[in-house]
Every structure is written in C-alpha cells, then in structure tokens.
Amino acid sequence: MNSELESLPAEIVDHSLIRIASDLSLMAWEQMVAWRPLLGASLDASVVDTKTSPNDLVTRADAQIEALVRGYLNRVRPHDLMVGEEGSEALDPVEFFPADFLFKLHAFDPGAGALNETADDGPRLEWHVDPIDGTVNYVRNIEHHAFSVGVCAVADEADAGLGLGDWQIGLVASPGLDATWLAAAGRGAFRVDGRLADHRENDSAIPARRLRGTPAGLSGRLLATGFAYALSSRGAQLAKLEDLMTGYDDIRRCGSAALDLCMVAEGRVNGYAERGLGIYDYAGGAVIVEEAGLGVSRGGSGGPTAAADTQEEVDRLIAAI
C-alpha cells in the first residue's frame, strides 16, 4: 500500500522504550507459537476459558504472556504502571525462559544473570498491554491475532491507568501475519517483517516500510469495525451500521482492534470505528495511526474509538458509532 521500503531509523531502533517493547513482543511471540498446537480444534477447557460469552475467550497463553510481561516490567521499569487485560500475577522471565532465549532480550545482562533496570528521570509511564488481541482468532488458528503494547505518561496520579497522558510509543506484533508494526512520538510509523528482535543478529540496517495511510487515487473505500460479544448489544450496533458506512463501499471485520488500526496506518482500509474496547485494545495501534499522519480518537475504557485519514471523518465515525 502507501508505504515506502527504507531502513528503520536509528532513533527508532535505539529508542529505550521501543527496545523494551521489542523484548515484550519477543516473549509474547515465543509463547503464542509455543501454546498454539496445544489448543487444538476442540477448544479444550483445560487451556481455554470464556469471559463474557462463549466466543469471548481467554487462554492460558493470554494469562502466561501477561504474567511474563508484568514480571519483566517489574524488574526493568519498577516505578511504572502496567495495565493488562487479564490481571495476571507477575512471572519472572529469567526463571521461565532458557538462557539462549534470554540472550535475545535487550535488558538481559548475561554476567549478572538478570534483567537490568532502565528507569530514567522522565515521567512515570503507563504500559497498556493486550497479551493476545484477537484470542478467538488465535484459538481457531486464524492469522489475525497479535500482541499489543502502548505506552503513555501518567498525566496525574489520581487518573493513573486511564491513558490520559501523552502517548510515547506503540508496538503491535503478529506471529500469524509474521509482521511487527511500531511507532514513536514524533518519529513516524513503520512495518517490519517478522520479529523486530530477529534483526539484532546482524549489524545491517533493518528493512522497514514507512506507513502513511491510503495512497491517493486508490479506488474504493473500506471500513473496519468490530461487534460486541453480548447479544444484547447486537441490535443497536446493526441499526447504526448503515449510517456508519456512509461513504464506504464495504466493511471488514478481522477480530483484532490492534490490527484494524495497523491496517488504517498501512492504507489497507480507509477507516475504523468500534465501541466497547479496553484501552489496551487500541493503545499500541492508535499511536501507530497517529504517527502515520492520520486522525484518531481514543475512546477510553468502553467508549467509541475511531481512526481515518482526516479528523473530520474521525469525528463523523465517532458520532455514528
């Protein structure tokens, strides 16, 4: 789509928060791949549970990945706040992973056999993490699932965890699609093939595509959206669909808000709107949309979220959804 092949800028590669997010995504990717064969086609209750409905699934993989992320951040950014979807207790990555894997983590110190703290004099941060966005897809072996993390400053301690501060970085990593999307405030948005950490193994530049939204002149307009799991919400959503799709030719529903937002940034779809998300659902993707030069409106916890090529269209989608 509208993205140019270039090298990932050094200011992104060397960004301290991007390095941490890369470590987190590497752990998540590793465990998504490890758990997937154990889930099976029968949705075995020993590894799969439901949240709000039979199709709102949570797996032991979700919980384990979130626990590893929390354990990592407890060591590396101990003064920051992590907001996760599953509420899992911390699990120390150094005790969990073998040494050959730990060597791939930026924060791991082989000499000390521990993760190094990288706290700085900057503001306290919020790490909004979705261990597997698109769990239903993951369980059913549909490619559209991803790890997502977005980081913002704590605006006020009284409102900590609400995502109200300035957003710093976003990263979305999908084993199913074999791609990583990432962005840092003021530094642009990019897509990299595969895992970002895999490119550390050589000193050459990291090939990346800069994201700028839908190219001018592309025919047709597509809208991405999602639907609530609760049957009680279905009628109201469908009633709004005709108005929501004004100006669009077709609709796409891939089952992952994080990836929907990345598709807006890449220009694969022209807009996205959905209500009822958690902050962790859109945290990473919204930063990527913004840094691609597009408009985005964050809905907080449960409110309307939208992204499009212009702020005017974002406002229309928010009003319609």
Automatic annotation (TrEMBL):
Its EC number is 3.1.3.25. Its cofactor is Mg(2+). SUPFAM superfamilies: Carbohydrate phosphatase. Mg(2+) binds at residues 85, 130, 132-133, 281. One of its GO terms (molecular function) is metal ion binding. Keywords: Hydrolase, Magnesium, Metal-binding. It holds the Pfam family Inositol_P. GO terms for biological process: inositol metabolic process; signal transduction. This is Myo-inositol-1(Or 4)-monophosphatase.
